[in-house]
C-alpha cells in the first residue's frame, strides 16, 4: 500500500491510497465468495458457483462495489495509522481506479483533529456569586402558591375587564373594511394576559364592559403564518359576554395546611426562604462550575477546522428535529411557522457549535495530560444513573446501550464529566 498526503484548504488533508493489483485481486475474490453465499445459481449449491457465473448473475460492478466497501475501510484505517492522523469528522471518499487487474486507487479528504495547546486549567480563580433572597421574592413565591389555589368567580353585571380575568367574547375581524376568513368567534374563552391573541389585542379589552361593543385595532406580525394577513392592519369588533375574576384564598393557617405539611404562615415563609436560599446556592455553584469550564476552554490555543464546526451544527439540527418529532411536529413545519430556513438556523447555531467544539477539545486534551481513564465501574455508575432516570433495571439499560453500539459514546460522556470535575474540584478558594 502506498499513501500520498497532500494539504488542502480549511485544515484538511487529501490522502491518495494505492493498493497493488494483486492485493486488490484477493479482495475481489473474497467479495465473490461472500456474494456466492448469498445468491442462488441454478445447478450449483450456494457458495459453489464459479466466479464467472457470479459476475454474470449480479454484474461485475456489484462485485467491485462489494470488494471496495469491505476492503476500502480496512486499508483506509491502516493509512490513518501510518500517517498518525486522528479524525475530527467523517471523511469524504473518491474512487479513482476501481477495476479488475489494476491497482485500487482512491482518495480520502480528511480533517485531522487539531493540535491543542493547554493553558491554565487547574486552580482557576472563579468567584461564586450567591444571590440574596429578599423578602419580596419570598412574598412573590407565596403569592404564586395562592394563585395556584385561586378560583374563578363570576363578576357582577357592571364589572369591567381586568388583567388576568377569564372572559368569553364574540369577535369579528376586518382588514380594509372586509371581514376575513377565520377572523370570527362566538363565546370564545380568553384569559387576559395569556398572550393567546395578536400582541396588543388583549390589552385593549381591559376596561371593556359586558354587552358593550369594543373596537380593537391591531397589526398582524410580519411573520404571521397566514400570509394574506401578515403585516396588515386589522379591526376587531368585540363584545364581552361574561367575566370571571380570579379570587385568591386568604393567607392563613388553613391555606398553609392545604399546600404543605406545615401548620402556620410563619412556618411557610421560613420554609420558602430556606428552599429559595438552597436553590440560590445550587445555582451559584453550577454557574461557577460552568464559568470554570468556559475559562479553561478560553485558555487553550487551537485553530478549529471549519469542518468540525459544520459537523456540530448539523448534529444540533438533527437533535432539534428529533425533539420536534417527539412533540408531534415535523422539522419543515417548524421552519415554516418560525419564518426561518435551514441556512438561517445553521448561522444561528454556529457560535454555540464552535464554543462546544472548543470545550470538547479542551476536555480531551486535559484528560490526556492528566492520564484520566474510564473504568468499567465508571460506565456501570453511568448506566445505573440512566436506569434510575428511566425507571428501568441497569442490566436492561446496559443491554440496550450495547445493542445500539453506544458504549463508545457513553465512555466519551463519562470522560468529559470526569475531566470537568477535575477542573472544578481544583478551583481556588
How would you characterize the overall build of this protein?
This protein is α+β, with helices and mostly antiparallel strands. It folds into three domains: 2-110, Alpha-Beta Plaits; 151-247, Roll (Chitinase A, domain 3); 280-425, Trigger factor, domain 2, CATH 1.10.3120.10. The chain has twelve helices and nine strands. Strands 5, 6, 7, 8 and 9 form a five-stranded antiparallel beta sheet that branches. A hairpin with a 5-residue loop joins strand 1 (2-7) and strand 2 (13-19). Helix 1 crosses helix 3 (60-83), helix 6 (265-298) crosses helix 9 (342-370) and helix 7 (306-326) crosses helix 9. The chain starts with a strand and ends with a helix. The relative contact order is 0.10. The model has no long low-confidence stretch (mean pLDDT 94).
Number of strands: 9
Helix content: 40-55%
Number of structural units classed as domains: 3
Question: How is the CATH topology of the largest domain named?
Answer: Trigger factor, domain 2
Low-confidence stretches: none
CATH first level of the largest domain: Mainly Alpha
Average pLDDT, all residues: 94
H/E order of the elements?
EEHHHEEHEEEEEHHHHHHHH
Largest sheet features: 5 strands, antiparallel
Tell the overall outline: extended
Identify the CATH homologous superfamily of the largest domain: Trigger factor, C-terminal domain
How far from one another are the termini? 57 Å
Structural class: alpha+beta
Task: Tell me the β content.
Answer: 15-25%
Assembly type? single chain
Compute the CA-based radius of gyration. Answer: 33 Å
The CATH architecture name of the largest domain reads Orthogonal Bundle
Count of alpha and pi helical runs: 12
Amino acid at each position: 500500500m502506498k499513501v500520498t498526503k497532500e494539504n488542502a484548504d480549511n485544515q484538511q488533508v487529501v490522502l491518495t491510497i494505492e493498493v497493488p493489483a494483486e492485493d486488490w485481486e484477493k479482495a475481489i475474490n473474497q467479495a465473490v465468495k461472500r456474494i456466492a453465499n448469498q445468491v442462488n445459481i441454478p445447478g450449483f449449491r450456494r457458495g459453489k458457483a464459479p466466479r464467472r457465473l457470479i459476475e454474470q448473475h449480479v454484474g461485475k460492478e456489484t462485485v467491485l462495489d462489494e470488494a471496495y466497501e469491505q476492503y476500502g475501510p480496512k486499508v483506509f484505517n491502516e493509512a490513518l495509522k501510518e500517517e498518525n492522523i486522528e479524525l475530527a469528522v467523517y471523511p469524504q471518499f473518491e474512487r479513482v481506479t476501481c477495476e479488475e487487474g489494476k491497482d485500487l486507487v482512491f482518495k480520502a479528504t480528511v480533517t485531522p483533529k487539531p493540535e491543542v495547546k493547554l493553558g491554565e486549567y487547574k486552580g482557576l480563580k472563579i468567584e461564586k456569586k450567591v444571590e440574596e433572597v429578599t423578602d419580596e421574592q419570598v412574598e412573590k413565591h407565596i403569592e404564586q402558591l395562592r394563585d395556584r389555589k385561586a378560583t374563578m368567580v363570576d363578576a357582577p353585571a357592571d364589572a369591567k375587564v381586568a388583567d388576568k380575568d377569564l372572559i368569553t367574547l364574540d369577535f369579528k375581524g376586518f382588514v380594509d373594511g372586509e371581514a376575513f376568513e377565520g377572523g370570527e368567534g362566538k363565546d370564545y374563552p380568553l384569559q387576559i394576559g395569556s398572550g393567546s391573541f395578536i400582541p396588543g389585542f388583549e390589552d385593549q379589552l381591559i376596561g371593556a364592559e359586558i354587552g358593550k361593543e369594543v373596537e380593537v385595532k391591531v397589526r398582524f406580525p410580519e411573520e404571521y403564518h397566514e400570509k394574506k394577513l401578515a403585516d396588515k392592519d386589522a379591526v376587531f369588533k368585540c363584545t364581552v359576554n361574561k367575566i370571571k375574576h380570579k379570587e385568591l384564598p386568604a393567607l392563613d393557617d388553613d391555606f398553609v395546611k392545604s399546600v404543605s405539611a406545615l401548620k402556620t404562615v410563619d412556618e411557610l415563609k421560613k420554609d420558602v426562604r430556606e428552599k429559595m436560599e438552597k436553590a440560590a446556592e445550587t445555582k451559584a455553584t453550577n454557574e461557577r462550575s460552568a464559568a470554570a469550564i468556559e475559562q479553561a476552554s478560553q485558555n487553550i490555543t487551537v485553530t478549529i477546522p471549519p469542518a468540525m464546526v459544520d459537523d456540530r451544527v448539523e448534529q444540533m439540527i438533527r437533535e432539534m428535529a428529533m425533539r420536534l418529532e417527539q412533540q408531534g411536529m415535523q422539522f419543515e413545519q417548524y421552519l415554516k411557522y418560525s419564518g426561518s430556513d435551514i441556512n438561517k438556523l445553521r448561522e444561528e447555531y454556529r457560535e454555540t457549535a464552535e464554543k462546544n467544539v472548543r470545550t470538547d477539545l479542551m476536555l480531551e486534551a486535559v484528560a490526556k495530560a492528566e492520564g484520566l481513564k474510564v473504568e468499567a465501574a465508571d460506565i456501570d455508575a453511568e448506566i445505573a444513573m440512566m436506569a434510575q432516570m428511566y425507571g428501568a433495571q441497569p442490566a436492561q439499560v446496559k443491554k440496550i446501550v450495547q445493542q445500539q453500539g453506544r458504549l463508545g459514546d457513553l465512555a466519551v460522556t463519562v470522560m468529559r464529566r470526569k475531566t470537568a470535575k477535575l477542573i472544578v474540584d481544583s478551583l481556588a478558594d
